[in-house]
Amino acid sequence: xxxxxxxxxxxxxxxxxxxxxxxxxxxxxxxxxxxxxxxxxxxxxxxxxxxxxxxxxxxxxxxxxxxxxxxxxxxxxxxxxxxxxxxxxxxxxxxxxxxxxxxxxxxxxxxxxxxxxxxxxxxxxxxxxxxxxxxxxxxxxxxxxxxxxxxxxxxxxxxxxxxxxxxxxxxxxxxxxxxxxxxxxxxxx
Length: 189
Prior knowledge:
Sortase, Chain: A; 8-stranded mixed barrel
């Protein structure tokens, strides 16, 4: 009987380690992808050629209020969000409508973990295609996970950040920010 309980104890330990190590491995993989993408973005920005970024690097999202600086790729599928924040397919160009970005809050890097801490007036920057777009947060609210009108494009230039609620995957936290300034970045040819 003693060897049987020892085997069961070892199985429980192995399963427990797996439950801890799998999320850590996912986090490490996502963090490594973001590290590489951010390095590529910053390299191209340092030589002022942000319009010649690698194919999987679309833009850079910066929110000082929550210490966030991440590369944003295109797409919000499960595989896309494993790499970090992603643009929704419905997103408009920043000068013509609603730019919508989604990210995980409790998995794969948890880049939007502190999104709930943003308050009215907090500044958000999105660098994209040789320009830096400055936004000011004007509201945050919660919607059901079936409410996708918040990411649809409209005529008003704005930014929408979307993530799940940690304790309720059936609802989404939405942060809306208005465009306040467009900064042209120089480009050396």
